[in-house]
Specification:
By secondary structure, this protein is of the alpha/beta class. The protein folds into two domains: 15-123, Chitobiase/beta-hexosaminidase domain 2-like (Chitobiase, domain 2, 2-Layer Sandwich), CATH 3.30.379; 129-466, Glycosidases (TIM Barrel, Alpha-Beta Barrel), CATH 3.20.20.80. It has helices at 35-49, 93-106, 143-155, 180-185, 200-212, 228-233, 245-254, 280-296, 314-330, 363-374, 409-413, 444-451, 454-463, 473-481, 484-489, 497-500, and strands at 15-24, 30-33, 54-56, 64-68, 78-82, 86-90, 108-110, 113-123, 129-135, 160-164, 166-167, 170-171, 216-223, 301-305, 334-338, 352-355, 379-381, 429-436. The strands form three sheets. Strands 1, 2, 3, 4, 5, 6, 7 and 8 form an eight-stranded mixed beta sheet that branches. Strands 9-10-13-14-15-16-17-18 form an eight-stranded parallel β-barrel, surrounded by seven helices. Residues 127-309, 318-465 form the Glycoside hydrolase family 20 catalytic domain. The active site is at residue 308. Keywords: Glycosidase, Hydrolase.
Length: 501
């Protein structure tokens, strides 16, 4: 078999040295090495090819071996060689795992058989944080759907799932100290669709599944706005809805209801809700919720929202963010907040900011983002007009929104995190995240259609150096197109590239 050039690899590795020929991958091949990694690779190869490979204590010619050696590369890096056998050596378990993701992309049909090109790869990520976000508040996704989202993301070497767990449309996480949140605040979703919530055992299952694929889960409890659902359970904690002209105009244009205190909110307008910032009972609520949330998620981050508080007095907003980021830090986690929280002079030191403004930021947005770095924190880049997977990929696409513009595949690929905010380079950037908000996303199939292949573009931006080999549009377009057979086998309902490029 003649393998394509460039190779069907996304993200593209730091270094690839092609050797002559290919190595057949027959049903008699075996996998040796780290037990957890070999078991997962065995399962994934079976799903990809139908081959059910055996295991071995020691690899021989024609076999696959997966090992860990800290002398190789650096954090999450790996070396992959294909000569008379396939050998993957990770700097750590994560690196070895990501090496197996590269191998899965290299396995190609060779008539009725399978083979892998002979080559040598050395690879490691550009950024430590490479994320996707799933909004399960506006539309609820069950445990199995979240696990499939994790699988899709980790195959592209993402290592973080950000779960947006609470919003005006629903509260999705059971909290023992405040049980009415899910009893009364989780029944519906946007557009009147069914709701749902996660028990603590559900979350443990999601976290365990993610950890097996070397991903952490970052929970978001959105505060002090996006809190209408709290009022369904504990009305004494929230302010009456605050209307604004944009909210009214959108409701009329979309034929959606305006928010009404005490009633589930079925629209998707923003900026109308807030907790009672001056009420001490609110901070007891925040402490209880963040404590229980932090205990469920072993990763280092706890996201507290902080966006789109359009009806909140700036002084009240500042007082809340200063206090809430410290409550989050008291759980032992690093607080994360959307970039508006950077306007607060006293945001807790070390808080990470998540930037969702435009690629060409306003002066205020840029200053807000930079303030996190000045306060000993860092930035996650999620520019809405390039990285938001819920933006329409073409003007006539049946799903998605356009408030940040139309984001086709070329635009999703054609930006660099280090050039978004002046003065903020790689040293101050924790990483990159591709959010999928779910106003129009009602099913997992909808999520696939919006996310793929654009999620692959963001994955390459997060992993690969901007001046690395094959790191250019024509190559990427060719390479991601060659992943289509594997995506079909995995059941990913992706949108054909020619429709959105």
């Amino acid at each position: 078999m003649v393998f394509p050039d460039p190779l069907p690899l996304v993200p593209f590795p730091v270094s690839v040295q092609r050797l002559d020929g290919t190595l057949p991958l027959p049903a008699t091949a075996r996998i040796a090495g780290d037990d957890a990694l070999t078991a997962l690779l065995r399962d994934d190869l079976a799903a990809r090819t139908g081959l059910v490979l055996g295991t071995a204590g020691t690899a021989s010619a024609g076999d696959i071996e997966v090992h860990i050696d800290s002398a190789v590369s650096h954090d999450e890096g790996y070396a992959l060689t294909v000569t008379d056998r396939i050998r993957i050596v990770g700097h750590d378990a994560a690196g070895a795992y990501f090496g197996t993701r590269t191998l899965l992309q290299l396995v190609q049909a060779d008539g009725d058989a399978w083979s892998v090109p002979r080559l040598e790869i050395e690879d490691a990520p550009r950024f430590a944080y490479r994320g996707v976000m799933l909004d399960v508040a506006r539309h609820f996704f069950d445990v199995d759907a979240v696990k499939r989202w994790i699988d899709r993301a980790s195959d592209l070497k993402a290592n973080t799932l950000h779960l947006h767990l609470t919003d005006d449309q629903g509260w999705r996480l059971h909290i023992d100290a405040w049980p009415l949140l899910t009893e009364r605040g989780a029944a519906t979703s946007a557009l009147g669709d069914p709701g749902g919530f996660y028990t603590k055992d559900d979350i443990r299952e999601i976290v365990t599944h993610a950890a097996r694929r070397h991903m952490i889960v970052v929970p978001e409890i959105d505060l002090p706005g996006h809190t209408h659902a709290i009022g369904l359970a504990y009305p004494e904690l929230v302010e009456p809805p605050v209307m604004n002209d944009a909210l009214r105009a959108d409701a009329e244009r979309l034929g959606q209801p305006l928010p009404v205190a005490g009633e589930p909110y079925l629209g998707w307008g923003v900026g109308h809700s807030s907790v009672r910032i001056g009420d001490e009972r609110v901070y007891e609520f925040v402490a209880d919720v963040l404590d229980e949330t932090a205990a469920l998620f072993p990763g280092p981050y706890l996201h507290i929202g902080g966006d789109e508080c359009l009806g909140t007095d700036p002084a009240d907003f500042a007082a809340f963010i200063a206090r809430a980021t410290r409550i989050a830090a008291d759980t032992g986690k690093t607080p994360v907040a959307w970039h508006e929280a950077g306007a607060v002079a006293d945001v807790a030191p070390g808080t990470v900011g998540q930037y969702w403004g435009a690629l060409d930021p306003s002066e205020a947005h840029a200053a807000d983002a930079a303030h996190f770095v000045a306060r000993e924190g860092a930035l996650i880049l999620s520019p809405s007009d390039a990285a938001y997977l819920d933006m329409k990929p073409s003007a006539d696409f049946p799903l998605g929104l356009t408030w940040a513009g139309v984001v086709d595949l070329h635009r999703a690929y054609g930006w660099d995190p280090a050039t978004v905010v002046d003065g903020i380079d790689d040293s101050a950037i924790l990483g990159v995240e591709a959010p999928l908000w779910t106003e129009t996303v009602r099913t997992p199939e909808d999520a696939d259609r919006l996310a793929f292949p654009r999620a692959a573009a963001i994955a390459e931006i997060a992993w690969s150096s901007p001046d690395g080999p094959e790191r250019e549009w024509a190559s990427f377009r060719d390479r991601v197109a060659r992943l289509a057979p594997a995506w079909k086998t995995a059941g990913i309902r992706f949108t054909p590239i020619e429709e959105i490029a």
